[in-house]
Amino acid sequence: MIHIDTIISHTLIAAISDLYSASIEPNTIQIQETRKEFVGDKTIVVFPFVRIAKKSPEQTATEIGTYLQNHIPTIESFNVVKGFLNLSVSADYWSDVLFDALAQGEEYGKTAVTNDSETIMVEYSSPNTNKPLHLGHIRNNVLGYSIANILEANGFKVIKANLINDRGIHICKSMLAWKKFGNGETPETAQLKGDHLVGKYYVRFDKEYKMQIQNGIAAGETEEYAKEHAPIMCQARELLRKWEAGDAETIELWNTMNSWVYDGFEQTYTRMGVSFDTIYYESQTYLLGKQIVLDGLTNGVLYAKDDGSIWADLTAEGLDHKLLLRPDGTSVYMTQDIGTAVERFKEFGSMRELVYVVGNEQNYHFQVLQLILKKLGYSWAERIYHMSYGMVELPDGKMKSREGTVVDADDLMEDMNKTAAAISTELGKLDGLTPEETHSIHEIIAQGALKYFILKVEPRKTMLFDPKESIDFNGNTGPFIQYTHARICSVLRKAEEQSIAIPTNAGSYVCNAKEQEVIKILARYKESIQLASKEHAPSHIANYLYELVKSYNHFYHECQILNEQDTQAQLFRLALSKQIATVIKSGMQLLGITVPERM
RNA sequence: GGCUCCGUAGCAUAAUUGGAUAGUGCACCUGACUACGGAUCAGGAGGUUGGGGGUUCGAAUCUCUCCGGAGUCACCA
């Protein structure tokens, strides 16, 4: 069916033409939802047209309103407040919206992916392999997974990629500490998840390192010297050199410890419900980009210093000089990122976008990356997008791994589960289910609370996480939305028991104001997906769902469904309830959140 | 110091991208259940949108300038 906004928009252009003999650009038309305190459904802002009409805003609005009412059957009436033209749409239109949506089911609001769809790669998660995941990674994973779903719902082919940083000095630190202090410990013997075990030795390294620095300073060294020459740090560097030289024993240990970490990550990812289509390893990509840089030097885009190092001069763009190859010819992180970006666009030629879900501490890095790619002449440089998100802070400040103030991802998920179980048990709604079913529902609620809490905030913003108070189960929360879904399911189950079939049209029923309110929000689902997609912000979906659910709950409280004596009304409300449940499920799925049928 | 981002009620957040009297949740008061599921609903109180100037019919939104916070300016990733 044709969207009412489209009809209004077209008719408005005709109106301006007929009334004032002028043509207007479609983008000057502003159609918005009429605010609650005024009568009407749709509002046109007429200020942009008063100059054309050469009349007062009120008079212009009245003339346009009259025209629209005469030309659009579904517009029943209008009123004018200052420069705002409020249009009232007929109940039939809203009924049509509902049943049109119902017919589309779970596809409602989404744009189908076809063979012709453009491809977008979303890189997210990208962990280091020297320590377990924490709350900051949860924000990354949840955002990345969600935006991938949202882009897909908006009609793009999406490739979810994970670039695992499996090499470098950090993993050598863990390896070295394990060799020195580990006594052959394994995840099995230690009864510890692999990533936590490796993390334990990373911490152990740091402890030893700090001690050696103190010793050095006590022996009269400067702090800088002590840091640089601490024996354990020198050994770690030596281990990295061995790794780069392909030393068999080192490689073997590296493989072993990384595999422990992957087992651990796998469990965490599974519990979080995130997944990837492709996994890259830095050990296989870190040499990429070198040739491109050398070519850039030949072309004169880059320059070399006397010591042989190669640089990009970005001062003309207001930035700094950036090193791309060290004097010894080895790469830095930026070099590799240039190389992988080039590879990816080579592999998926017509990619519309390459999205990097990475924290805002790397804003500068991505700015530089894009600029260098542009200078190197890659036309697609414009299409890399840094989906930058803010840090997660705790009530007493930033999370610092060294100070032990990080919130561990596995611990947090377990805590959330316990909280959900405690609340659920108290309410006793799950009595009669098997322990497995009960546990599964607790987990759904726990995950829903955590993910929604993170996703409802705009990604760019720094967010505060209060372990004690922040994760609510009331108000604007995941469980609140899940609850509404479960409640509707309960009603639908009862309807089915009574053999009441969901209708496919409204019959002669004219829907009331409460029902229309809900349908109006239902009608905005698609634009909510589009906005979230365009702005790379799942928060729009979260806030949309909250609004939808609030409105439905209001309706639910005001109107009887199964107990309604008027059969027409009963059927209509069942259809409405069913579609709202569908959109809740569909929208939550975009956030990576599952919804239970009871809770 | 340079660049980037943020600042909305005690706390946490929204505002259809320049539109109407800035919404909402927690917490705090007051109401609604022998229940189509109360993890709900209705009402109350709480704001100079960090301060000040500018742009215009109209600014939380754009601009300038201060103030406060974060990040970054590595031959780390």
What's this, in brief?
The protein is an alpha/beta fold. 55% of the residues lie in helices and 11% in strands. The structure holds one RNA strand of 77 nucleotides.
Name a few traits of the molecule.
599 residues; Isoleucyl-tRNA Synthetase, Domain 1; five-stranded parallel β-sheet; alpha/beta; four-stranded antiparallel β-sheet; globular; 22 helices; RNA-binding; Rossmann fold; Gyrase A, domain 2
Describe the structure.
The protein has helices at residues 4-20, 47-53, 57-71, 91-104, 135-153, 169-181, 187-190, 194-218, 223-229, 231-245, 248-272, 282-285, 290-299, 333-347, 363-375, 409-427, 435-455, 478-497, 513-522, 525-535, 539-558, 567-590, and strands at residues 31-33, 42-45, 75-81, 84-89, 119-123, 157-164, 278-281, 303-304, 310-313, 321-325, 353-359, 384-389, 392-394, 397-398, 463-464. Helix 4 packs across helix 19 (513-522) and helix 20 runs antiparallel to helix 21 (539-558). With 599 residues, it is of the alpha/beta class. The longest helix is centred in the middle third of the chain and has 25 residues, at 194-218. Strand 3 and strand 4 form a beta hairpin. It has 3 domains: 4-89, 2-Layer Sandwich (Gyrase A, domain 2), CATH 3.30.1360.70; 124-280 and 329-400, HUPs (Rossmann fold, 3-Layer(aba) Sandwich), CATH 3.40.50.620; 409-590, Isoleucyl-tRNA Synthetase, Domain 1 (Orthogonal Bundle). The strands form 4 sheets. It has a 5-stranded parallel sheet with strand order 7-6-5-11-12, sandwiched between helices. It has a 4-stranded antiparallel sheet with strand order 1-2-4-3. Strands 8-9-10 form a 3-stranded antiparallel sheet. It contains 22 helices and 15 strands. It is globular. It is 55% helix and 11% strand. The mean pLDDT is 93. The chain binds one RNA strand of 77 nucleotides through strand 1, helix 15, helix 16, strand 15 and helix 18.
